Structures are given as C-alpha cells and as structure tokens.
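quick one before i forget lol
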Amino acid sequence: MAARSNAARAGATSVPATAHRPTKAPATPASLDRLIHDRTRLAIVSALAAQSSMTFNDLKSATETSDGNLSVHARKLEDAGYVSCTKSFEGRMPRTEFGLTDAGRKALRKYLDHMEAIIKGARGK
C-alpha cells in the first residue's frame, strides 16, 4: 500500500496547479545583475550601447578608467558573452575593438528595467 502524505491523512484537498499562479517577485537591489551593476562594467556596457563599436582607447577615455581596469572588466563581460572583442593591426599598431553583443544589449535592457522598478518602488509609485 502506498504511503499517504500528512496533508492527505488530515483530509486536505489538493489544489490544481493552474489555480496557483506565482506572483512576480518585487525588484530588489539584491537581485540585480551583479556583472553589470559594477560601476566600471556598467560604464563599458552603457558606452557600447550608444556606439556600434569602440576602440580600447576610446572606451578607456569614455569610462575614465586605467588600461588594467578596462582590460579586467572587459574580459569579464566578454566571458559572459555581453561584449565582443576583436583584435587586429592597423599598420604595425595593434587595434582592439569592442562591441556590445545581442546578449549584452538584452542584459542591459533587463538591468535598466530592474533599476526602474526599484526606483518606482522607492518612490511609492
């Protein structure tokens, strides 16, 4: 004989799965995309969202960061698939160019929507 659950022994009735619809969890700062939320990475993604592509030096200037910081943060975004990086040569000079991927654009849009929900909640709207 199959074992009965405590709820079945107590005479509880089951609720159809369609009767319970989970509500959307409120936007909280703790649930933000931490990859984009970092100041430098948010600056990189925002700058790339406004341009089709940017060179390393242009991006460094736009984000007001050092070579090392830009390299580290751009690599994290690249590893996540948010940013593409193309390396080439212009004459004998190396040229690194960055672009925002479709996944990066989608993640930024989701991040901005999330921030707007938090702001609306804080303002009581």
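fyi The CA atoms of residues 78 and 84 lie 6 Å apart.
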